[in-house]
Amino acid sequence: MTGLEIGFASIAVMLVLIYSGMHVAITLMLVSFVSVWMIRDNPDMAAKLMVAAFKDSISDYLFGVVPLFVLMGLVVSVAGIGRDTFDVAQQAFRKILGGLGVATVAANAIFAAITGISIASAAVFTKVAVPEMRRHGYTPHFSVGVVAGSAVLGMLIPPSLLFILYGVLTEQSVGDLFIAGVIPGLVLSATYALGIVAMGKWAPGFIGGTTVSTDDMPTMSFGEMAAKLAPIVILVALVLGGIYGGIFTPTEAGAAGAAGALVIAVLKRRLGWRDFWQVLVQTGHTTASICFLIMGASLYSRMLALSGMPNWLGDTVLGAGFGVNGVVIAMILVMVLLGTILDSASIMLLVLPIAVPILTGLQVDLIWLGVIAILAVEIGLLTPPFGLAVYVIKSTLGPDTDITLGQIFKGAAPFALMMALVLALVFIFPALATALL
User: Fold this and answer.
1) Relative orientation angle of helices 65-78 and 81-92, to the nearest 10 degrees
2) Contact status, residue 134 vs residue 101, Cβ threshold 8 Å
3) Helix and strand numbers, DSSP H then E, in the chain
4) Does 140 map to a domain?
5) In this structure, is residue 59 part of a structural domain?
6) Model pTM?
7) Where are the transmembrane segments (predicted)?
8) Where in 27-137 does DSSP place strands (E)?
9) For 97, phi and psi rounded to 5 degrees?
10) Residue 126 lies in domain
11) Is the peptide bond preceding residue 385 cis, with omega within 30 degrees of 0?
12) 88, 229 Cβ separation under 8 angstroms
C-alpha cells in the first residue's frame, strides 16, 4: 500500500474503532503508530516518532493554561457562584413570560466568562435552575432544554477550553481566539434570550404557557444583588481584563483566576478540605484526559503528514475548483455529523489535522475558522444519539427523575437550531469573529 492509501485506510479504521467504543486517544495512538510502521516499514521509527510527538505536544508553556482554567472553573462551581448568578438573573427577568429561561441563559453567559467548561455549566444549572423552573410551572422539556442549550456558552464565551485546544492544535494565539469568541458568544446569548421570549409569545405551550408564575419570588435589594455579583465581576476583570489589557498571558491569567477563585471560595466559607481535595483530583483527571487526547492528535497529525494525504487533498481541492466556502461548509457538516457520536474535543482532534492544512493553503483566517469550528462541534452536544450535555443533565438529575432523555433532546432542539443560525451568521459575516482583533 502507498502512504496515501494507508492514510485513508487509517481514517476508516479509526472511525470503526471509535464506533466500537474504544477511547479516542487510544485509537489515535494505536492507528497512528501502526500506520507509520506500515509507511516506513520500520517499527523503531514509529516508536521514535511517537516519543517525539508526545514530548513536543505537552511541553509547551501554553499548555499550563489547561489545568489552571479547569481548577478555576471547578472552584467557582463549588463556591456556589452559579447559584448566586442565577438568583440575580432571576430577579432581573422575573416579569417576563419565560423569564426564568432568560435568567438561565444570562446566568450561564456570566458563568461561562469565569469557567470555560460546558459540562460544569450543565451540571451546576441542572441543580440550580431546573427545580426552580419546575416549581414555577415550566414544562419538563423546556426546563432541561434551556439548561442544555445555554450550557454550551461555556465553550464559546472566553475563557474556553476548546479555544485553548484549538490554539494548541493550530498554533494560533489563544488570546486572539478568546477575543474572537466575545461577539459570537454575546450574539448567541441574545439569540437564545430572544428565542425564549418568542416561544413565550407564540408557543406558550412549549415552555409552560399561562401556568408560569413568578409573583411569589423573594425580592432582593440592589445591595444584595451587587454583593452576589461582586465575586463574578472581580474574576472576570482579573482574568479577561488581564488578558485583553496585555497584563497577563493566557497562562498567567489562568493562574491569577485560579488563585482569585480560591480566595473567594475561602472568604465565602464554601470550600472545605474535602471539597478542595475533590476539586484537585477532578482537575487532575480532566487535565490528564485532555493531555492524552493532545498527544494522540499530535502523533495522528505527523502520521498524516508522513502519508502525504493533506498535500494530496489540498491539491485535489484546488484542482477541482472548490472555493473556501465549499471546503469550510464540508468541514462544518462533518463536524456536526461526528457530533452525533463524539464529544467536542475528539471531533476537533480528528478533523482539524486534515482540514487546517487545506484551508491554510486557501488563505483562510484561522482565527475565524476557530469560532466556526467551536460552534459546529458544540451543536453536537445537543444532538442525538450522543449529545454529551444531554447525558450530563440526565445524570445530574439522578435516577428518581421523571424527565426522560427524549424530553431533554426535545427541549434542546430549538437551541440547537438557534446555534445553527448563529453559525450561519458568523460564516456569512466573518467580522463577527474578527472585528475586535
Assistant:
1) 60
2) no
3) 22, 0
4) yes
5) yes
6) 0.82
7) 6-39, 60-82, 102-130, 142-165, 177-198, 229-247, 253-271, 283-305, 317-338, 345-362, 368-393, 414-436
8) none
9) -65, 120
10) 3-308
11) yes
12) yes
Query: Tell me, what amino acid is at 415?
Result: F
Distance between CA atoms of residues 78 and 276, nearest Å: 9
Between CA 173 and CA 274 the distance in angstroms is: 37
Q: Do the domain assignments include residue 303?
A: yes
Cell of 29: 495512538
Instruction: Tell me the C-alpha distance between 112 and 163, whole Å.
Output: 13
Cell of 69: 482554567
Q: What's the pLDDT score for residue 427?
A: 95
The DSSP secondary-structure symbol of 80 reads T
**Alpha-helical regions (H) of 59-98:** 65-78, 81-92
Angle between helices 366-379 and 344-361 (to 10 degrees): 150
- Residue 329 CB coordination number (10 Å): 14
* Average pLDDT score over residue span 74-102: 81
Closest CA to 374 of 185, 173, 142: 185
Model pLDDT for residues 237-257, shown as the tens digit of each residue: 888 788 778 888 878 888 898
In this prediction, residue 211 carries a pLDDT of 43
Whole-number Å distance between alpha carbons of 412 and 142: 8
Residue 338 phi, psi dihedral angles, 5° rounding: -65, -25
Residue type for 195, please? G
> In 3D, which of 258, 222, 238 has the Cα closest to residue 92?
222
- What is residue 216's predicted lDDT score, i.e. its pLDDT? 55
Residue 317 C-beta-side C-alpha neighbours within 13 Å: 24
Q: What amino acid is encoded at 11 in this protein?
A: I
HSE, side-chain direction, 13 A CA sphere, residue 226: 3
With beta carbons less than 8 A apart as the criterion, state whether 114 and 76 touch: yes
Residue 72 lies in a domain: yes
- Beta carbons within 10 angstroms of residue 326's beta carbon: 13
CA distances (Å), origin 422, targets 163, 279, 343:
18, 34, 20
Predicted confidence (pLDDT) per residue in 259-282, tens digit: 998 998 888 888 888 888 988 998
CA distance 368 to 303: 26
Which helix (H) or strand (E) is 385 found in, with range?
none
**Which one-letter DSSP state was computed for residue 210?**
G
Q: Look at the chain and report how many structural domains it folds into.
A: 1
For residues 332 and 324, give the distance between their C-alpha atoms in angstroms, rounded to a whole number: 12
Is residue 211 within 8 Å of 67, Cβ to Cβ? no
Residues 6+ apart with CB under 8 A from 6: 35, 38, 39, 307
pLDDT tens for residues 334-374? 888 777 767 777 788 778 888 888 888 788 999 999 999 99
CA of residue 240 relative to chain centroid, distance: 18
Alpha-carbon distance of 333 to 94, in angstroms, equals 39
